[in-house]
Design goal:
- This protein is of the alpha/beta class.
- It has ten helices and seven strands.
- The termini are far apart.
């Protein structure tokens, strides 16, 4: 009886999100799907960041496709073309999700551009083979917000806007009207635009960027985030963007 009581009490007090059902019970959060952990994948991929390209038959790659299909359907139903993706906590895997979602969207025949708006720890340029220090978002915002040379085509069929040169990466510019001009230019050029932002709990960048996007979604790493934290961030994103579409 004591053992059963201890189990019940532990489950009652556990506030971390460990499964899709834990995410689904948070008010206002629609579950968009889950990306499998590579540690549980029989194909044993070495890295999840480009698993859709390097291990297309793996369980992790298939889970990415399923999430991408849900994202496309949700955005198409609402007429959205730009989406902010941000992690609740550092290490949530936002860059991994953005990269694989973009590859899946490109494979489906759509033109897609991804933006590295994480000025604190940019990763998209390295992931997609764009030269380090290449012109990107920071440089465009330092100028007039025009696209200029900030877009880099890659062999993966995905256009990448890196964070930009180090001196140009000032987070204050993400709230500038020039960012709105920049996003308008991308909307006219691509079918879909995905934005990778810094973790929402660590910075206000994501909230500022959400105001420039049609929709936003939050990335949650199983076993890391508390339900209360995710609920608060979901509420803030919902108030900032045109529509908060859910969590992955």
């Amino acid at each position: 009886g004591i053992f059963v009581g201890w189990i019940f009490l532990r489950e009652l007090l556990e506030k971390r999100i460990r499964s899709l059902s834990d995410l689904a019970i948070i008010p206002g959060v629609t579950v968009l799907g889950a990306v499998a952990d590579i540690d549980d994948d029989p194909a044993e991929p070495e890295d999840a960041e480009m698993v859709l390209r390097e291990f297309p038959e793996s369980v992790t790659a298939e889970s990415c496709r399923q999430v991408a299909i849900t994202l496309l359907r949700t955005m198409a139903n609402q007429g959205h073309t730009t989406l902010l993706l941000t992690g609740a906590m550092p290490g949530a895997g936002t860059t991994t999700v953005v990269g694989n979602m973009a590859c899946a969207i490109a494979n489906a025949g759509h033109s897609v551009c991804i933006i590295d708006a994480n000025f604190r720890r940019p990763r998209l340029a390295e992931t997609f083979g764009v030269l380090e220090g290449a012109s990107g978002l920071g440089d465009a915002l330092a100028d007039s917000g025009a696209l200029g040379g900030s877009i880099h085509e890659t062999e993966f069929g995905v256009a990448v806007v890196p964070a930009g040169t180090e001196s140009s990466r000032l987070v204050e510019r993400l709230a500038d009207e020039r960012f709105g001009v920049f996003m308008a230019g991308l909307r006219a050029k691509f079918d879909y635009v995905l934005v990778d932002a810094a973790p929402a709990v660590a910075a206000t960048d994501a909230i500022q960027i959400a105001a420039r996007c049609d929709a936003s979604a939050i990335i949650v790493r199983a076993g890391n985030e508390q339900r209360g934290l995710v609920a608060r961030l979901a509420r803030e994103l919902s108030e900032a963007s045109a529509e908060f579409i859910g969590g992955i």
